[in-house]
């Protein structure tokens, strides 16, 4: 055995596997396994880095056993799954943080090893133990990225060609700190992280760094923070995230608190129901996945306090396994869910009641707010009811006067007459209003294109009252559509054309207004004719509006024409001023039906003699005027 005792210097930071590999090469052993058997250990012992294997290898290689042990990643085979993992220089390291399938190394370090010990040839380059820790991504000596290549553990590998394509990568602040911790050198500040395990710090830095890096995108709502994960990052991105996170965490817990506060504020601005994962994404995941890590307890408590105090977290929500008791903050969404009210409607009511200001989505619950919400949940004033069903004051008054909306009497002292709309009644009103609807997809634009209008606007267009339209809807005589972007009364759209058809479609007569328009008469004159019974009319009650209206049938107008003649016709024939005409007619002994006023325009046709005389007189007059001109 002594004959081929290997003479290999133990490298600085070299691990057990590398040391054994180099000794095997120098000894001329064809396999690593064969060499290990010869020196009294096994491949499994060396790969696991057991104390026995370290001792045997150090003894055989005449190396410092403590140095070798400190650089070797050692397997810990505990009884429970939780206890299993690795140790590096006494520090626990999780299984996922140790690379055990490929070699990771710095090509420049290996090239230097070869230059230092040229006579060792392939046995010159050695593998540093810390390179197999996944959060070490850069060589601290050369500031280049570690390369992952070749099988681990390997023997007789030629590393020479790998020095060609190196990628510059300065070690991150996090890496420097972890290296200091791992090698038990004095740390670079951040005492508050001393209690955390090395691999906890790596994930912590990377999680914090990732959300800091994406802060602008999260604020702009371009990225959902809960969808971020450090596990979907490339090694270079994780390296950058670790560096960024370290810049925050190395400044102490206050900086982390500021960060958490910024993210809770962003979540509040976005609105919606809040959950810790939706606020802090990967940071929440990191903290939730290590429930047994007592060192994180203080951080978890701090985050729970910040979230509970500044966001409307649902009281039943658990943050890191601890229930948040009655939160003092709430949001419209949370409260709307609790009261079964539309959040827009609730928001308007709370603004009206002065509990919140415009645009405020998250607010502190005090006694006043609670009282207001309780009140709204039971009865509402006219103003509140108007907001609740989304109808203007004018519309509310119309609906109340018509009896469609009834104020449920409370107290009966009359003093509080305004505060008397029951939420139940208002809900029922809206339910009746929107019972038979045909869905129209699209917003207000599509409604207008389809010739639909809101109830108040349709009332103006169809010349009726909004109340008439509501009654038609209740009777199921017209269809409605609802605007999905709005709510309540103003979201109901109806067709003014349909309403006009129902209200006025069946009648045959003309209104007085229409008679005046058709004949070119003044409306006063038509009213006179009707009032004085010159023109026959009938009173028609509109079946919908219940309004009484005087209507003139076409045959009544014909009868009037047969019986009477107006002075306007004489003027046409005499071609004189109406005063002269009137004098002429009077001279012929024909009298109007009335001596003065509007009645002086009307003559009876049945006065045949007078009529003939006028005709003759007119003819003569005409002849005379022609003669004069000639
Ligand atoms: Zn290097």
TrEMBL record:
Q: What sequence ranges are listed for the domain TniQ?
A: 8-146
Task: Note the Pfam families from the entry.
Answer: TniQ
Query: Which branch of life, at top level?
Result: Bacteria
- According to UniProt, the name of this protein is TniQ protein
Which organism is this entry from? Nitrospirillum amazonense
